[in-house]
Design brief:
alpha+beta; 3-stranded antiparallel β-sheet; 9 strands; 26% strand; 283 residues; extended; 3 domains
């Protein structure tokens, strides 16, 4: 089934279905998630009535779709890969055309070089460069350059969308982050010239690093289409708690009274403030 070019990227592989059956005196309202891998269809239905309302069933459908994309891998149906690095000898997405401008004296035609590339919104991006302004070679080269930059940006956004929301970095790398601690931990940071990363299994929260509720609900649906995944994933994830270390920070533009109460309960507690960029670029 061909993809709908007008469908928003966020609804890729998801279709809305509202059907009434006169014969059976019934109605079906929900979202259908469909994939095609190696000519094998994969489909899952999310009924509105099961999740309370239309918005909730769509949310579950998107979670399932995102999970299946990661599990299946490879090119995703509904997202057409774009050719990278267009050259003067390989003008994919770049062409010369005549643009018509209507004046009072009558229509006039001007040669332009146009380029286009896909976007994650589902619509194509376009730019044009006039030969009268840049010359034939100049307009063509500008169109090639704009197209290559647009494609690289397209793939960058696809990569961002493929990252799980739990690990997606904020759009502003200079946003303030805070860490509340007692004075002895602060002295340790100064002496060691680095941050302390505790092992997850040693934290007070026994559920830290465990599967989320949504993951547990959707996992059986993933396994239905991949019998080989029905092994001991829960046990594997649980064992990773002994091998995973973390450093927890609070992201906010201002200090937080709640964080002071939770993590700085003594009179010797302090708070340090940094940015995501500084922390991520630390050696």
């Amino acid at each position: 089934m061909p993809s709908n070019p007008n469908k928003p990227y966020e609804l890729r592989n998801i279709s809305r279905i509202d059907k009434k059956s006169v014969k059976w005196n019934s109605e079906n309202h929900g979202w259908q998630v469909r994939f095609l891998r190696n000519r094998k269809p994969i489909s899952q239905w999310f009924e509105d009535s099961k999740y309370g309302k239309k918005e909730n069933s769509l949310k579950e459908a998107k979670l399932y779709r995102d999970g299946m994309e990661k599990q299946l891998g490879g090119p995703v149906k509904g997202v057409k890969p774009a050719v990278r690095n267009v050259t003067p000898e390989n003008l994919v997405g770049v062409r010369r055309r005549m643009r018509t401008v209507n004046y009072r004296s009558g229509p006039q035609k001007y040669p332009v070089w146009t380029c286009e590339w896909p976007s994650t919104s589902g619509r194509k991006e376009r730019r044009a460069f006039a030969e009268n302004k840049y010359g034939e070679d100049g307009a063509r080269n500008l169109a090639i350059e704009a197209r290559n930059k647009g494609v690289e940006e397209y793939y960058r956004k696809l990569k961002e969308k493929a990252i799980h929301k739990a690990f997606k970095a904020p759009s502003n790398p200079d946003i303030k982050i805070w860490r509340y601690m007692d004075f002895t931990k602060f002295v340790s940071i100064l002496q060691q010239k680095g941050l302390f990363f505790p092992v997850v299994s040693e934290l007070e929260d026994q559920f830290e690093g465990s599967f989320s509720k949504a993951n547990k609900l959707l996992r059986p649906l993933f396994r239905k289409h991949d019998p080989s995944s029905a092994g001991h994933r829960s046990e594997t994830i649980k064992s990773l708690r002994d091998w995973t270390v973390v450093s927890c920070w609070h992201m906010n533009e201002q200090e937080s009274a709640a964080m002071w109460n939770l993590y700085a309960r003594t009179n010797e507690a302090i708070c340090i403030q940094s940015t995501l960029r500084i922390i991520s670029e630390m050696p």
